[in-house]
UniProtKB/TrEMBL annotation:
Lineage: Eukaryota, Fungi, Dikarya, Ascomycota, Pezizomycotina
Record's keyword annotation contains Signal: yes
Pfam families xrefs: Amidase, DUF8016
Keyword Ubl conjugation on entry: no
Signal sequence, start to end: 1-31
Name of the molecule in the record: Amidase signature domain-containing protein
PANTHER family: AMIDASE 1
């Protein structure tokens, strides 16, 4: 998209190196002065001017005299493609509706492609006469820019937003060499970071770039070229240099046109942590739903909190080893997928357990979900969006409520199962995994009951794999430059790694074997695939996701423990089957924090046979079309609305509290 990129000239930031140096008799020293971009305000909207130019136009430094200027920059608009001048007002009205970055104030100075050169003055909006010049570099995309008057360089515009949910580790902008650098901007707001989003107008969706302009948050375990990463650990962030290379998973999304806007917080080393006690190195993101003080779940916490909070963010890539996408999706009322295992390389991603790790999305829009999955998983994902599917009719439920009237969440979940059954013209049957296991126990399990067979499997795999792949090299590298010291590690990963040290290689081999035995059993006895691609899976297995609030972050929790035991959330972990969260609605519960009734998300998890990831997304789309599922919105509830802590006092006429001296 960008040609003739270059850093802003020193002149543009109002400094003259030569005159400074000549005042003193100093030894000749080189001064490398680089612009990190500029932060400006246009009609009360915060913008960031990229330091990397998109190209140049021919313009007199005195042009557009009526347009305001800061540091030699003026807001302008580029319009490419054949369009009549008369149609510009309609075009700009459309742009304002689809893009949160563009505003009419950019359109006082317009560069219009076509047969120039010509100079016109036209009434584009009701207030001002716009000046129109011609542009003949078609490589500069349409949209708002800041024009450096002295050079004619056009710089892309980012709108700045506050990260009030504390979801980001570091916001970023792309650099011309295909890498990233930290966004250098700060606006007022909750004493939190500032995130920049590029204009949506710069990007055009094509077959090769189906994610063009889609704004993406990336969990801070995926390494990005030019950026440091932390894995949720401050010692790690400081110890290691910025990455050379973006890993293939995120690169696939970038190649499809996605715009990475920042690294997002993970609980430490992608282990399960509870807000607030376990998050020692960094503070846990804020779940915006309900009273705003429910645990955001982990480990893809920044991903979930941001997609639930920010309309200006489209998708977030997280990872799921033991529930790290499903947990945050559920408690924040989002779609989220733990995919079939092994769909895409996780090179340059910090592992928890390669045997179990999976990359997936947290998202509000089930249509974008399909496009993003296609870009991420490539040929290993079969999109069924445009296919006439034949849904499996066998629906089985795990631990669903016996009495649908027992509480509001039970009613929502039961109604959903019934609606799903009616939709696929199928039947619902409770699944008793233990009875099925007893009836067809694999010979390798030698009669061991299911829960005993899998009791320590997860804990063994994650702790043995992460200690050797992550902890050991980290400790060695840290000790080498810190006189033998050990880095600080949060209580949860520290305890888990310690557990790993008590295990033998034989325990590890047993865990791998048990996992495989269960997988083979589940994928043949319970949820086998079918040969018909329009159906893919022999059935759906449902289990309970979020059932409303009740996990406030201001609790004094108990000490962390080893994640032993078996539960429905472990099935997909071991069996490698896709397991997606569908947001179903919300329940009203009394909040002890706000002393008021608040709405909290309710969600269900749906599994299909291994490799049937596309079927679950198609199901989400069809259930939305049938009115059975409603796509969630960003906001204080799944149907949108103010986020409690963000309600503006000024708008309600609240005045400043003034303190007077007590006498
Ligand atoms: C258009 O492009 C040509 C050749 O690149 C250049 O000479 C000319 O000045 C350009 N005109 C304008 C108005 O930018
Ligand atoms: C603006 O959008 C409307 C409705 O989609 C469309 O009819 C119209 O042609 C658009 N205007 C321009 C200039 O693209
Ligand atoms: C499964 O078998 C074990 C013994 O191997 C038994 O203790 C357990 O009660 C059985 N469970 C069910 C649900 O039949
Ligand atoms: C594996 O299964 C055996 C029973 O066959 C059990 O004794 C052992 O604890 C299991 N180990 C792990 C790590 O899963």
């Amino acid at each position: 998209m960008v040609s003739q990129r270059g850093a802003m000239s020193a002149r543009s930031v109002g400094l003259s190196i030569l005159s400074l140096v000549s005042c003193f008799t100093l030894p000749a020293a080189s001064a490398q002065l680089t612009s990190n971009g500029l932060s400006v305000t246009l009609n009360h909207v915060y913008y960031f001017i990229s330091p990397f130019s998109s190209g140049r136009v021919l313009v007199k430094p005195t042009a557009f005299s009526a347009v305001p200027q800061v540091f030699g920059f003026k807001p302008v608009t580029v319009v490419q493609g054949a369009i009549a001048q008369e149609a510009l007002p309609s075009l700009f009205a459309n742009w304002t509706a689809i893009d949160d970055v563009f505003q009419p104030a950019f359109a006082q100075a317009i560069f219009l492609s076509g047969s120039g050169p010509w100079l016109t003055k036209r009434k584009i909006d009701t207030r001002d006469l716009s000046t129109i010049l011609s542009i003949n570099d078609t490589s500069i995309p349409s949209g708002p820019y800041f024009l450096e008057m002295a050079t004619g360089s056009l710089y892309p515009v980012y709108r700045l937003y506050e990260d009030f949910a504390g979801a980001f580790l570091e916001p970023l902008i792309p650099t011309p060499d295909g890498k990233f650098q930290v966004l250098s901007a700060q606006i007022p707001g909750s004493a939190s970071l500032t995130v920049g989003v590029p204009s949506r107008l710069y990007f055009t969706k094509t077959a090769a770039k189906p994610l063009a302009g889609v704004r993406l948050g990336v969990k801070d375990i995926y390494r990005l070229a030019g950026m440091k990463g932390s894995n949720g650990n401050r010692a790690w962030y400081n110890l290691y240099p910025a990455s050379e290379k973006t890993g293939p998973a995120v690169q696939a999304l970038i190649d499809a046109g996605a715009q990475v806007i920042g690294l997002q917080k993970t609980s430490q080393f992608a282990n399960g942590e509870s807000a607030t006690a376990d998050w020692v190195d960094y503070h846990a993101p804020f779940n915006p739903r309900g009273d705003g003080y429910q645990d955001p779940s982990s480990s893809s916490s920044g991903a979930g909190a941001s997609i639930a909070s920010y309309e200006w963010l489209d998708i977030a890539i997280g990872s799921d080893t033991g529930g790290s996408i499903r947990g945050p999706s559920g408690v924040q009322g989002l779609f989220g997928n733990r995919p079939s295992h092994g769909l895409v390389s996780l090179d340059n991603v910090m592992p928890l357990s390669p045997t179990l790790d999976t990359p997936g999305f947290l998202i509000r829009d089930p249509y974008l979900w399909d496009v993003a999955n296609t870009a991420l998983y490539g040929g290993n994902y079969k999109s069924l969006a445009k296919t006439q599917v034949k849904y499996p009719t066998k629906i089985r439920t795990l631990y669903f409520p016996d009495n649908p009237e027992s509480n509001a969440a039970a009613t929502i979940i039961t109604n959903f199962a019934n609606a799903l059954a009616a939709f696929v013209e199928g039947t619902i049957e409770p699944l008793d995994l233990e009875t099925s296991w007893n009836a067809s126990t694999p010979v390798e399990a030698a009669g061991t009951p299911l829960e005993e067979f899998l009791e320590t499997t997860y804990a063994t795999l994650i702790t043995k794999e992460q200690t050797s792949l992550v902890r050991d090299p980290f400790y060695a590298d840290y000790a080498a430059i810190h006189d033998g010291r050990r880095p600080f590690v949060n209580p949860v990963p520290l305890l888990r790694w310690g557990y790993g040290d008590t295990l033998s290689e034989a325990d590890y081999e047993a865990a791998k074997r048990n996992k495989t035995v269960f997988m083979d059993w589940f994928n043949s006895e319970i949820l086998p695939p079918v040969d018909n691609p329009a159906q893919c899976s022999s059935g759906f297995v449902l289990y309970l996701g979020s059932q409303g609030g009740g996990n406030p972050r201001n609790r004094y929790g108990s000490a962390p423990g080893v994640p032993v035991g078996f539960n429905p959330g472990r099935i997909s972990v071991f069996a490698e089957v896709p397991d997606s969260v569908f947001p179903l609605g919300q329940v009203s519960l009394r909040s002890e924090i706000s002393n008021h009734d608040e709405f909290f998300p309710v969600a269900v998890d749906i599994m299909a046979a291994k490799g049937c990831d596309g079927l679950l997304v198609k199901l989400a789309q069809d259930l939305v079309e049938a009115g059975i599922v409603t796509p969630p919105l960003a906001g204080g509830t799944v149907t949108g609305g103010d986020i409690l802590m963000k309600r503006r006092a000024e708008e309600k006429g609240v005045k400043e509290v003034r303190y007077v001296e007590y006498s």
